[in-house]
């Protein structure tokens, strides 16, 4: 029987600079973790840096922009954290030292429902209008569109077609894209090529834990950010319909959970009474 050892599963040891790169997936609790990291940066005296709010958020970057992002990350004085919504960017490909990559994942069906209602929430457009006053408001019919009806009616927005490619603002239907990277193979929705690239990035680059651990006291007394009270419940029947087209996303999520379990077992932590 193979013995699991923490060092075999912990990619933190591969890091060549004490900079945490949190390329955060939307709607997985990343805003809450970001705020916790900000607070801990004060207590633990490390640099906290995040990307500015953008008019158009692009998660896939050209090679030139990947190089510029890698240089920016490496320019910060360590120890530090840098946070941005962006696909996995291999900093070492540009001749720069490897940072510590961290991220979060969430059940893909719950996440896509959360995203659907997040971009329709009133406070979301208030924030967008304050930041960019000239942005037009969306069609009220689109804002009021119900997720269940969107799925059941075969609405284009809620079909989630295998092999489909979406560009523009960014493909937020799936979290695997944030691990797959910027390669063209990552673009088609729910495909084997994108799935395998995402798994490989997790195995080779993502850490067990950041070197600035979150204390239980901070977690227990801090409420989630961006919790959407406007999100109605969605039936399991509708969720099952969506699951049929999210097979690779579900496989990726289960892969991440299994890897985390292996890491936990390897640590050989004593059981709590």
From TrEMBL:
It holds the Pfam family Sulfotransfer_2. SUPFAM superfamilies: P-loop containing nucleoside triphosphate hydrolases (SSF52540). It comes from the Eukaryota. InterPro entries: Heparan_SO4_2-O-STrfase (IPR007734), P-loop_NTPase (IPR027417), Sulfotransferase (IPR005331). GO terms for molecular function: sulfotransferase activity. Keywords: Glycoprotein, Golgi apparatus, Membrane, Signal-anchor, Transferase, Transmembrane, Transmembrane helix. One of its GO terms (cellular component) is Golgi membrane. It is a single-pass type II membrane protein. It is found in: Golgi apparatus membrane. Belongs to the sulfotransferase 3 family. This is Heparan sulfate 2-O-sulfotransferase pipe.
């Amino acid at each position: 029987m193979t013995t699991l050892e923490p060092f075999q599963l912990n990619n933190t040891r591969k890091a060549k600079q004490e900079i945490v790169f949190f390329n955060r997936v939307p709607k997985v609790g990343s805003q809450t973790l970001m705020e916790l990291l900000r607070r801990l940066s004060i207590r633990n005296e490390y640099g906290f840096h995040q990307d500015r709010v953008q008019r158009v958020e692009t998660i896939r970057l050209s090679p030139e922009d990947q190089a510029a992002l890698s240089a920016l990350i490496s320019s910060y004085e360590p120890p530090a954290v840098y946070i941005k919504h962006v696909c996995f960017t291999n900093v070492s490909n540009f001749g720069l030292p490897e940072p510590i990559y961290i991220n979060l994942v969430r059940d893909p069906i719950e996440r896509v429902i959360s995203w659907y209602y997040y971009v329709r929430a009133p406070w979301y457009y208030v924030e967008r209008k304050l930041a960019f006053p000239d942005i037009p408001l969306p069609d009220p019919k689109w804002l009021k569109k119900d997720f269940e009806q969107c799925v059941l009616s075969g609405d284009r927005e809620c079909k989630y077609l295998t092999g489909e490619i979406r560009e523009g603002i960014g493909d937020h239907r799936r979290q695997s894209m944030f691990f797959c990277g910027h390669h063209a193979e990552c673009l088609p929705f729910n495909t084997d090529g994108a799935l395998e690239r995402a798994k490989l990035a997790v195995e080779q680059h993502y850490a067990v834990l950041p070197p600035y651990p979150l204390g239980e006291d901070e977690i227990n007394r801090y409420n989630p950010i961006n919790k959407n009270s406007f999100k109605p419940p969605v039936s399991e029947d509708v969720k099952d319909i969506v699951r049929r087209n999210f097979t690779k996303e579900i496989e990726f999520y289960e892969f991440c959970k299994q890897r985390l379990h292996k890491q936990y077992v390897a640590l050989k932590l004593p059981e709590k009474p």
